[in-house]
Amino acid sequence: MRIGVQGCCHGILDNLYSLASKHNVELLIIGGDFQALRNLSDFHGISVPQKFKRLGDFHKYYSQEKVAPILTIFVGGNHEASNYLEELPYGGWIAPNIYYMGRSSVICIGNLRIAGISGIYSEFDYRKGRYERLPYEYKMLKSVYHTREFDVLSLKSLRLPIDIFLSHDWPRGIEQHGDTAKLLKNKPFFRKEVEKNDLGSPALEEIINSVKPRYWFAAHLHTRFAATVHHNKINPSDYRNVFEQGGSQSSDEQQENSKKARTEVDTVPNPKPSLENGDHNDDASQTPSTLTTHFLALDKCLPRRSYFEVIEVEPSKPFQDGDLYMKYDPEWLSIIRAMQPFQSNSVEQTPLPSLDELQKLIDKERQWVEENIVQKHKLGILRNFTPTAPFHSREITDKMIPVTSVNPQTTSFLQLIGLQPEGNEPSLSSSVKNEDEIEL
């Protein structure tokens, strides 16, 4: 599959789709800071300095004035319309052909198994529940996008191989698996964090060491960086980072390739790692290829920055008629059901099970998923986007506060997996005027 990978998006969709279309990509993956602002009232749900606030392009895709020409998936970052994304904690369509991966999830596109986690790490909020509610106080505006241990444990419980993992943050220590000197030359202010082994997320470090995906794409730190993690540490010289430029090239050739990278596009060869269908993620059951993770972080969407690249990923099985069929992942659905008793809507997180205890719960839930979803052919992800807020117009201003609504997609998903939705019945949200706002 020909995949376009984008770093931070910052609401710039028109130019991105124009660029991706020129390179005939079948799937577009965005590493966060998507900024899905539907109207001006959504500024109450985004953590962005006032001078950087702009509506961006997304509202045109939300109102269907435009339709995304390429199937797009993304995870959330630390500059998001969190009030909208929180309507879809398990993932869903934020506009036609644009799919949010939720707080954490695994989906299948074609025959690629793709996992993702949203947000960035904060030690202060890591072990808290999901307590944030509109209208967001200042602290909530920050904590709402902080990664939680709940989601990390869910992903660490995966036992079947993952083709692609998507995050906004970097796994901690990933810089040690690439050209650290080059990274520090480009970003010298990272040095203290690197020396303290504090660059990136310790939670994602746990995930990459546990899940061992074939590819890992990230953004957030606004620089291009490639690395290779050899999980089995056998004959590391046999592997090469498929995203790195240069190698045995001359200085002139390396300089030319560097210029090419800065024009935002490069095509990466496919190392063709195989995808095993075993029951466990054990070293003995995987090929060396599945024990190697090719990591690539990209820059933000600005001129002369390396923010977009094209890669070729070979699926484990061939597509039929070129259809990028999207499906829920049975193992992930089992994990969601197993983790449901530990969900917390308050500051205090319900005590979480050990990984061994969780695996036993997942095994029990797998039978339910098999009987009620897999055997009944209900794995397909429906194209059921439904607007839940008014479209951008003169009537909707930034002095209005968005109102929480239960997204019908979340309700449908919880019904699919046999869980009762929380909150009120789905209804179209509106925006109300903030009576405490001073007119200027």
From TrEMBL:
Comp. bias regions, Basic and acidic residues: 256-265
Region (Disordered): 238-288, 420-440
SMART domains found in the cross-reference section: DBR1
GO annotation, cellular component aspect: nucleus
Lariat debranching enzyme C-terminal domain mapped to chain residues: 280-423
GO molecular function: metal ion binding; RNA lariat debranching enzyme activity
Cofactor(s) this protein cannot do without: Fe(2+); Zn(2+); Mn(2+)
Descriptive protein name: RNA lariat debranching enzyme Dbr1
Organism the protein comes from: Schizosaccharomyces cryophilus (strain OY26 / ATCC MYA-4695 / CBS 11777 / NBRC 106824 / NRRL Y48691) (Fission yeast)
